Amino acid sequence: MEHPDDDSHGVGENQSKQDDEVSRREELKKSLVAKLALRQSNLNPERPDSSALRTLDSSIKRNTAVIKKLKQINEEQRESLMDELKNVNLSKFVSEAVAAICDAKLKSSDIQAAVQVCSLLHQRYKDFSPTLVQGLMKTFFPGKSSEDVDADRNLKALKKRSALKLLLELFFDGVIEDTGILITIIKDLASLEHLKDRDTAHTNLSLLASFARQARYFIGLSHAGEELVEEFFKGLNITSDQKKVFKKAFHTYHDAAVELLRSEHTSLRQLEHENAKILNAKGELSEENASSYEKLRKSYDQLYRGVSALAEALDMQPPVMPEDGHTRLTTGDDVSSPGTGKEASVAEALWDDEDTKSFYECLPDLRAFVPAVLLGEAEQKGNDQSSKASDQPSDSTTPESDQGQIAAQDTAETSVSEKKKDDDEKDKGKEKEKDGEIKAEIEKEKLRGPEGTNLDGLIQRLPGCVSRDLIDQLTVEFCYLNSKASRKKLVRALFNVPRTSLELLPYYSRMVATLSTCMKDVPSMLLLYLEEEFNSLINKKDQMNIETKIRNIRFIGELCKFKIAPAGLVFSCLKACLDDFTHHNIDVACNLLETCGRYLYRYPDTNVRMANMLEILMRLKNVKNLDPRHSTLVENAYYLCKPPERSARVSKIRPPLHQYIRKLLFTDLDKSSIEDVLRQLRKLPWSECEPYLLKCFLKVHKGKYGQIHLIASLTAGLSRYHDEFAVAVVDEVLEEIRLGLEINEYGMQQRRIAHMRFLGELYNYEHVDSSVVFDTLYLILIFGHGTEEQDVLDPPEDCFRIRMIITLLETCGHYFGRGSSKRKLDRFLIHFQRYILCKGPLPLDIEFDLQDLFGDLRPNMTRYSTIEEADAALVQLEEHERSGEKHHTEQEKPRSMSGSSSSVNGQVVVANGMEEENGGTHHELESDSASQGSTMDPDGNDDEEELDDDACDSEDDYAGPASDEDDEIHVRQKVMLVDPEEEAEFDREFRALMQESLDSRKLELRARPTLNMMIPMNVFEGQGHGSGRVSEGESGDEGTEYEEGGGRKEVQVKVLVKRGSKQQTRQMLIPSDCSLVQSTKQKEAAELEEKQDIKRVVGGEWSTEATLGKVMAGGLAPAIGIPIILAGDTIIAEENEKMGDG
Questions:
Q1: Which residue intervals make up region (Disordered) (predicted)?
Q2: Residue 513 pLDDT exceeds 50
């Protein structure tokens, strides 16, 4: 039952076709009406008189310009050119205009434009048409000048084609009225003399076919269903005699061309047969034989295409040639067939082990399991004469036959003699065959019992036969279903093995080899299918056919090892691949060698030829620029067939300690065992094992790629105890990266990628800073460029450096998200994009990795598409940084000259606004900054830890490795303008004073012990707000003293008591005459005197606090506390520096 939707869909399609046909007819009608109108205008031209022509421009300059345009006639310039022709007088330049039109290189799309131009000139100038005809005729009948003889044949053929089309169109439009011109040209093209020259014959066939398609009416052919076209051609007044002349010329030339084609086909087959003999005898063709064959084959193909095109234009059947011989296949066995001359002693060396030998040579005897009637042997006895005649051409696997000398023509002669014999015994053979078939069917029906299986079910079980016993059992079962139709169906099922199930091919081949002992047609049919498939696939390059090609060639190779496929067939397939050693042919050749190459190389009769083939294979591999995958395939196939003659590899003997180190790093190391591995490495005798341990750490490419970060973690763990080891690891990694850039070998790529990952992990574990990472990135970009070895170190098509940069940035790039490192990464990514654009189109995997990288690091960054855009971005960035640096320098100049530094939010900032890296100033002012940044809760707990924990979530310094350039704080401070001379004088005096203070400070530090214990900053909070009697000391600072009734004075101090993780401060009184108080007063007096000296030098321009900060920044900070240890608690006692109330 049909659905209404289907009916409506069909009706819609028919309606659409009808509409297209109607529109086509309308367009054809319009074009014919226009052509008829133009023809009438050309047949009855109204030419202007001489007086009218005088009014037009006849200057040489204008006419020369118009004539130049006539040499470049096309559809786009047609209207403008015709307008110019109407405004100029070419009556004196007709011959020049004709020469320009004849020299114009017209395309098929420009013919109509040329016809319009010629029609206009014909209607204005009487002598234009005769001159044009003479000029176009010279194209077909050139003189014997050296210029014409030496002209390019292809250029002459194209010129003839355009001239013939133009002449025919001019005849249709009435510019030319003489049909004899066309007859003369056609007679010349159809001359049999031209068939002697092959190139001329090919050109004339193409021209005649084009003319026949364009002017079917001239040959007496009708336009089916084109009444309007028929009416148009009837108006051309072509006589019947003229039609007969055209028809006779075309048909005569067609018949002669067909005979020439047959002659060339015969010569080609003969040459192919000779090549087959040479291939079977020598294994390869000489260059002379190969070139002559290719030349004859190309000439035959071109002639066949030309004759077929002409036959199609004449409504004739294309020529049918006998089946082509093909040098890529052999019709019979060759002299070097592996089935001849087999010796038991040699056969032992063919296989690697006894199991393989048994699989390929020990086949089950079907006669021992299956009755003879089911194997068809009864039929063969009944019609022995006919079977001999029919089996002789296909018996290509018998070892006793000397079929290496049999050729294709010998096979043809044999088939003729067989035909004569069959004529005599035709009746008897038919009767006996019928009787035998009836008896066999009766016997089969009797013997088929419960164990018999259906043929379809048996075929469905084929893919499950993945062992020798299963395939042998299935072979025996098939014999109970043996018939001609069953064998064909089985062969087709074996041939259609799934292209992805290559593991079934050896078992299918074993089944065919087992059946070949009793059913000769099974292997011959399968080989025929495989040969035809190979020939059809050899020239197909699309990716969809690669698996089918590999399945086909491996099937042939497996059949060769079972002595089913002749060695000549294998060598011809291999030779076909080597002739065009590109693309899929490389994969096919390598798969063939992997399947049966070792077998043929070990077999004595094919050893020499296979060795020659292998040498050709390696020469092609060295000559051609193969990609790494194909190069590896070729080497593997070669050395599988012909292993290198060298001794067995001796394993390296290592000391037990070295073996233990390798076991720890390459076997035991994982996330759960890293602590144990570190503990074991620390137990090693370090002086003895350090060099080898460093060597193993650098072999990260030999371990798992995902465990490189564990090696970096071990480096971090060992650096706590062996600083020099971590430094050596970093140095060696950087050296290895540079070495890889200098060598640039394909075999080192895995190693180089691992080192890039290792360097990134070392940055993550804070062993290198960002400058090292960026220096390495820029080194990868620029190394080798601008030198003579640039194309070797970094070829234009090599994208491996891009892969290295991607690996490093994927490892540690996400930490460059703030501060100067962020700007550095932005700058580098622009340089990186420019480098990428210089490489041209990238492989898809590289492009995808780049998209992922930019998406992770800079998702909003612009991806430039041209080098110019990247250059403009770099210039803009440099200008922006230059202007920013200039502005920054102007603002920071006063502070940089004075050498001042400030403390903002607990961070030390120098004049240029960047935090000092591990500098002494940080340590000198650590106590002051800490005292400003910490608080004490009511319970005595320090809030500094909580603040640090909160900062961990918001600051990048705690989210990753600390960068030496991440924290950059700019301080804006109004400074007083100072005269440069006064400022220089001040700097000199200040440096002298600082140097003097440093010298005295060094002597003072040597004289007394240094306080190394850190004092909590909360000790100094709340000073100066106590109660009691306050007396002012010598320094002018306030101090708290208590006087007892006995007149003894005591000084109040704070004591820090620490229990567990809590810290508390308590106040206590100590006698004022103790050594602690006295030493403190002496230090205060010295400091006061020093402060007064500084104030006098500065001259009142700096405040007391700023002066103290300067002195402290210069290393003159006074000691502010002395620790006291009391029993029971850890107590830090500190006398207040200002003697204020606690």
A1: 1-27, 315-349, 379-452, 879-904, 918-968, 1020-1047
A2: yes
- Coil, strand or helix at 1134: strand
pLDDT of 917: 37
728 lies in the same domain as 630: no
Mean pLDDT calculated for residue range 253-269: 88
Residue 373 has pLDDT above 70, yes or no: yes
Of 885, 922, 886, 920, nearest in space to 904 by CA: 922
Any idea what the Cα angle at residue 788 is, between residues 786 and 790, rounded to 5°?
A: 60
Average confidence (pLDDT) over 309-320: 84
Q: Is the domain of 547 the same as that of 428?
A: yes
Residue 237 falls within a domain, yes or no? yes
Q: Among residues 527, 504, 510, which one has the least CA distance to residue 397?
A: 527
For residue 328, give the nearest of 272, 396, 264 by alpha carbon: 272
Q: What's the chain's Rg over C-alpha atoms?
A: 50
Q: Which stretch of DSSP H or E encloses residue 530?
A: helix 521-537
**Any alpha helices (H) in 899-1029, and if so which ranges?**
920-924, 926-933, 944-954, 956-959, 980-1007
Percent of the chain at pLDDT > 70 equals: 70
Q: What is the CATH number for 762?
A: 1.25.40.180
Write the pLDDT tens digit of every residue in 903-919. 333 333 333 333 333 33
Give the residues across from 1071 on adjacent strands.
Answer: 1050
Please state the pTM of the whole predicted model.
0.37
Is a pLDDT exceeding 90 seen at residue 33? Answer: no
CB 762 within 8 A of CB 712: yes
Residue 391: both structure tokens together: 């089996």
pLDDT surpassing 80 at residue 393: no
Say how far apart CA 664 and CA 681 lie, in whole Å: 8
pLDDT tier at 751, thresholds 50, 70, 90: very high
Is the domain of 771 the same as that of 803? yes
Q: Give the DSSP per-residue string, 592-654.
A: HIIIIIHHHHHSHHHHHHHHHHHHHHHHHHHHS---HHHHHHHHHHHHHHS----PPPPPPP-
What does the alpha-carbon distance between residue 678 and residue 943 come to, in Å, rounded to a whole number? Answer: 35
**DSSP string of 665-725, one letter each residue:** IIII-STTTHHHHHHHHHTS-HHHHHHHHHHHHH-GGGS-GGGHHHHHHHHHHHHTT-HHH
| Residue 889 confidence class, pLDDT cut points 50, 70, 90 | low
How far is it, in rounded angstroms, from Cα 331 to Cα 323? 13
Spatial neighbors of 349 by CB under 8 A, at least 6 apart, are: 602
Domain extent for 301: 178-320
Same domain, yes or no, for 714 and 686?
no
CB hemisphere CA count around 164 (13 angstroms): 27
Domain membership flag for residue 1129: yes
Shared-domain flag, residues 492 and 598: no
Q: Which of 818, 847, 876 is the last residue of a domain?
A: 847
Averaged pLDDT, 364-387: 63
Sign of CA dihedral 395, 398, 400, 405: positive
Number of domains the chain is built from: 6
Domain check: are 441 and 368 in the same one? yes
Q: What separation in angstroms does the CA of 252 have from each of 269, 307, 319?
A: 26, 12, 15
> Is residue 468 domain-shared with residue 361, that is, in the same domain?
yes
In a domain, 949, yes or no: no
- CA dist list (Å): 459 to 354, 441, 526, 1140: 30, 21, 16, 106
Distance (Å, whole) CA 344 – CA 914: 87
**Dist. CA 285–CA 578, nearest whole Å:** 12
Distances (CA, A) of 981 to 46, 517, 972, 985, 1110: 103, 115, 24, 6, 21
Cα(1051)–Cα(1071) distance, integer angstroms: 6
In this model, does residue 585 exceed pLDDT 80? Answer: yes
Task: Write the pLDDT tens digit of every residue in 981-1036.
Answer: 888 888 888 888 888 777 766 665 554 544 444 555 555 554 444 433 333 343 33
Across the chain, mean pLDDT equals: 75
Does residue 551 sit in the same domain as residue 459?
Answer: yes
The residue among 598, 618, 642 that closes a domain is 642
